[in-house]
Amino acid sequence: MITKKEIMAIREKLPGNRRKFWEENKKNFPGNANEIFNYFKPRLGKWKVYIVLGYLNKKSKPYDFDAHSGANLLAGTKKQGYEFLLFLNIARLEFLSKPALIPIIAHEVEHIKQAMKNSRRYLLSIIDDKLSFKIEKEAEGILENFPDCEIEEALESVLYCYDKWGWDSALKMAKDLYNRDKKYGGGYRKALGLKEYRAFLASKKAQDIREFIDAFS
C-alpha cells in the first residue's frame, strides 16, 4: 500500500517548516482514512460498518486517555442485525500522513475481523483483562508488516505535539508512545523504541528537535 520510498519522501519534509505539512494532512484525513479502511477491510457479507470521524473531547491532546479510537460491536444477531461502529478520533489522527495513519486504523480493522469471527469472545474482552490482552496482541500482529509506518506514526506524533504545544507536550507524547505496551489492558507494541526515546530526551536537553528527527534517518 505504501512504499518505503514514499515514506522517505515524507520524511524529507519534516526538518523544515512543517505547518503546511500538518495542514495538508488534516485536509486529506477523511480520504486517507477511508482509503486505508478499504485496503484492510474484510469481506463484510451480512455485516455493516459505520465509520465515524469525531472527538470524545475536543480539548484532548494526542496523548490523552480520551484521544483513543475504537472498534465497537453494535449488534451481532439475526434479529438485531450485524453492525459495527469504527470510531476514528480526530484528536489523535487528523494531523498524521497516510503512512502514519496505517498502524492505528489497521489495528482497529483487525478488531472488526475478530468480532465477525467470534462476537462473544470480542465482547467478553471488554470485561476480562487477560482476554483483552490476547485480543490486542492478535490485532497488533498486522503491524509487523508495516514497521516503517509505525516509525512514521511515532515521529509525526511527537513533532506535531512539539510544534503545537512545545517541549512538555512532546515529552508526554514520547512517553505515551514508549509506554504503549502498558496502556489499557496491555498487549500492544511499543510505538517508540528505546533508541528513539533516548534520542528525544537528548534532543530536548539540547533544545534542538532536529536531533530527534535525525535519529529516524
How would you characterize the overall build of this protein?
This protein has 217 residues and is mostly helical. The protein has one domain. The chain has ten helices and three strands. The protein has a three-stranded mixed β-sheet. A hairpin with a 3-residue loop joins strand 2 and strand 3. The longest helix has 22 residues. It is globular and about 60 Å long. The model has no long low-confidence stretch (mean pLDDT 94).
Order of helices and strands: HHEEEHHHHHHHH
Strand order within the widest sheet? 1-3-2
Alpha-carbon Rg, integer: 18 Å
How much of the residues is beta strand, in percent? 5-15%
Q: Total strand count, please?
A: 3
Fraction in helix: 55-70%
Number of structural domains:
1
**Roughly what is the average pLDDT, rounded to an integer?**
94
**Spans of 5+ residues with little confidence (pLDDT < 50)?**
none
Tell me the overall shape: globular
For the terminal residues, how far apart are their CA atoms? 21 Å
Structural class: mainly alpha
What attributes does this structure have?
217 residues; mainly alpha; three-stranded mixed sheet
Topology:
Layout: H1 4-11, H2 19-40, E1 48-54, E2 70-77, E3 81-89, H3 90-93, H4 98-117, H5 119-124, H6 129-140, H7 147-165, H8 167-178, H9 194-206, H10 209-214
Parallel strand pairs: 1-3
Antiparallel strand pairs: 2-3
Helix pairs in contact: 2-4, 4-6, 4-7, 7-8, 8-9
